[in-house]
Amino acid sequence: xxxxxxxxxxxxxxxxxxxxxxxxxxxxxxxxxxxxxxxxxxxxxxxxxxxxxxxxxxxxxxxxxxxxxxxxxxxxxxxxxxxxxxxxxxxxxxxxxxxxxxxxxxxxxxxxxxxxxxxxxxxxxxxxxxxxxxxxxxxxxxxxxxxxxxxxxxxxxxxxxxxxxxxxxxxxxxxxxxxxxxxxxxxxxxxxxxxxxxxxxxxxxxxxxxxxxxxxxxxxxxxxxxxxxxxxxxxxxxxxxxxxxxxxxxxxxxxxxxxxxxxxxxxxxxxxxxxxxxxxxxxxxxxxxxxxxxxxxxxxxxxxxxxxxxxxxxxxxxxxxxxxxxxxxxxxxxxxxxxxxxxxxxxxxxxxxxxxxxxxxxxxxxxxxxxxxxxxxxxxxxxxxxxxxxxxxxxxxxxxxxxxxxxxxxxxxxxxxxxxxxxxxxxxxxxxxxxxxxxxxxxxxxxxxxxxxxxxxxxxxxxxxxxxxx
Amino acid sequence: xxxxxxxxxxxxxxxxxxxxxxxxxxxxxxxxxxxxxxxxxxxxxxxxxxxxxxxxxxxxxxxxxxxxxxxxxxxxxxxxxxxxxxxxxxxxxxxxxxxxxxxxxxxxxxxxxxxxxxxxxxxxxxxxxxxxxxxxxxxxxxxxxxxxxxxxxxxxxxxxxxxxxxxxxxxxxxxxxxxxxxxxxxxxxxxxxxxxxxxxxxxxxxxxxxxxxxxxxxxxxxxxxxxxxxxxxxxxxxxxxxxxxxxxxxxxxxxxxxxxxxxxxxxxxxxxxxxxxxxxxxxxxxxxxxxxxxxxxxxxxxxxxxxxxxxxxxxxxxxxxxxxxxxxxxxxxxxxxxxxxxxxxxxxxxxxxxxxxxxxxxxxxxxxxxxxxxxxxxxxxxxxxxxxxxxxxxxxxxxxxxxxxxxxxxxxxxxxxxxxxxxxxxxxxxxxxxxxxxx
Lengths: 470, 439
Known about the structure:
The structure holds two protein chains of two kinds.
Chain A: H1 16-24, E1 31-47, E2 50-68, E3 71-77, H2 83-97, E4 112-115, H3 128-143, E5 148-166, E6 171-189, E7 192-202, H4 213-228, E8 235-241, H5 243-254, H6 267-272, E9 286-289, E10 310-315, E11 318-319, H7 326-332, E12 340-341, E13 350-351, E14 355-358, H8 365-370, E15 374-379, E16 383-387, E17 390-394, E18 397-402, E19 405-410, E20 414-418, H9 419-424, E21 426-429, E22 442-444, E23 447-450, E24 453-455, E25 459-466
Parallel strand pairs in A: 4-6, 8-15, 14-24
Antiparallel strand pairs in A: 1-2, 1-5, 2-3, 5-6, 6-7, 8-25, 9-10, 9-14, 10-11, 12-13, 15-18, 16-17, 17-20, 18-19, 20-25, 21-25, 22-23
Chain B: H1 6-22, E1 27-43, E2 46-64, E3 67-73, H2 79-90, E4 94-95, H3 115-118, H4 122-139, E5 144-160, E6 165-183, E7 186-196, H5 205-218, E8 228-234, H6 236-242, H7 244-250, H8 252-257, E9 277-279, E10 302-306, E11 309-310, H9 317-323, E12 338-340, H10 347-352, E13 356-364, E14 375-387, E15 390-394, E16 398-403, H11 404-408, E17 413-418, E18 425-436
Parallel strand pairs in B: 8-13
Antiparallel strand pairs in B: 1-2, 1-5, 2-3, 3-4, 5-6, 6-7, 8-18, 9-10, 9-12, 10-11, 13-14, 14-15, 14-16, 16-18, 17-18
Helix pairs in contact in B: 1-2, 4-5
């Protein structure tokens, strides 16, 4: 953990398994758990010519959650001192709340999961000076292109060591590092300001930040091109999404709806998201899989100690599964899927996606384009938001499609729609699945950015509303 | 507070500053904060969780040979190590554009701590939330209802090696509710929230209940708008977000880096002559109020935009050094509590004046466009069609688009009445483009 060879006082020297399980012994609750974390991270950021940020953070802390008669009490803390009292406080809070029977899914978990990370290229062996030299080169490349106004190049490394024990007797320790590189260019003409960006992230390999000179150049060129590009005109279009954009669509537009904490206590939502509902054409398959090695959303166990799983959300166009915590699984009579995740110490685990993707279809990318006389090719993802059935996404850039050909570059492409209608309007799925490992992450309930993967092949959707001047 | 850490941390902080100087720092600052929180939340119409929280943290910033290093942590015993980390980082760190902090001065006294907040108990907050939930159940028993309340008490220290050593104490409460109404595949989300540092008239269950009930009533009918351009009314609750490109454009660092569209507009007209924004950091018990910024520079009450003319750019100490400007006492080059000054017509009169238009309460994806440029293109998450001055129904599956800077230069109109907490008025802007699925 020592980033600069300096051991931090107060970091743990105790037998954590024993400490946590001992503290839980007197828990007066139907269920109680303690999650404790050590976090250590460093960030560097260039903005324009100058290094603007060089910071490090080192924190410990945790949360006790207790459930009594179906009610929850939580106690958030920094120090392991008086841990027994924190357990008692959470149990007392739970007793105040609970007025029904506690329902939590039974899961088979190994008694102990101890998962220290073995990195392919460990960033902890690289000096600050070397890391800075890497990002400075990218920054210089972006700024070196004629017409660039500014840049933003950042590097971050985060190391989470998570300890967990519950009154069920299970214990885990998992190390969850993350390394991220983000490159962005800014160009300006009068009051017009345009940006382009790319990012890369890895759980176990510092190499992810190396040899990105070509990407830096592409980012700069795209920034300059976007400055000259026309705005996308508003209207209804056939849209082909590239894999990056389609992955964000799968995550935002549909994935969040399958999170059972939005469903389990809402009868109308349960009916709406009933297994067996027709969601799209028979070629549509969407999966969430937290077991795929080293992808950003993968973990050994979730933050309730449940092993992560592969869950078919849509199979052959039919709604096939939901994502669960222990509570939502029990209350919906389904299996726990290992999707209860917390972003940091002091946060309750809530139902989250892991690595979510549209599975590849049978058509080629070229076949998708051949079917479009006039449309939009939306590429990259600037962002996405959903209010359950309603979604909106911005493409990082895109092109007009005419007679099956990719034509002029467009800027400011923002799509919106109703997921139940839009999924049915997907009429082409290519065979070129991509699972990009980008920076950023998912936000929900104030917990952001959670590491996730959003993947897909190229997909084609009819009749999509695109914002802009009509 | 159950336990105050001020006495325990003060000598550690002083020792940390001395260590930083000994290790070569020309400027050093340590900030410390400690908070306790109690709260409750209702989900799906029933009490789901009560929680307690006690957390602390500190941050060390040093400048060594013209470079900055930052380190933060929450283990008190590790402060000395974190000073060393900050020093080590400063050797390779970001360029600093100042070498010393200014001497502290006498700062304006602003109230942030009120015992009235500490009288809120877990039981009283549960009872208040239950009342909100029960009322909304009575409005519509098919709603998925949430409510939450909480109160916190905090203490902190900001100290630097120029002699600043300020102890801060604050309190805060929050109260809110929300509903989800699901009808087939159609969903409506409505919510209301209040929060302040003193329990006063703003702690108002009726506001939460009535705001949500009004949205439910207005959204019970759907209405359409043909594709085109329409006048749009923005309520106080969304005005701050809507004007974020303007505030971002005043950021001195954005100006210096060339990424602000207002870069060349100082002293020039950037909005209609009836449009002014004031930054007022001196309102007692307002969570955004501050006497000074992180460098110890006094905050000031002043116009940012007056009669449509841009008055100044905002600079923190570092950015001011970079840009050759005077620091304005604004951390991160951002205002403390910027508010649009009220106009001369009531909000009712604004609505009555709209023959056909849109009232936008919430946009989905507003921040995803090229917002720095002022361009937005976003889904109308909660918006209502106005016809002949009356709200006639909810507009769904539609996008609005425009450029905020262009809109502000048009015939904008501002209400004379403001929201009690936000102190922001209603704003009417002309010619916002609307595209809907129905066309």
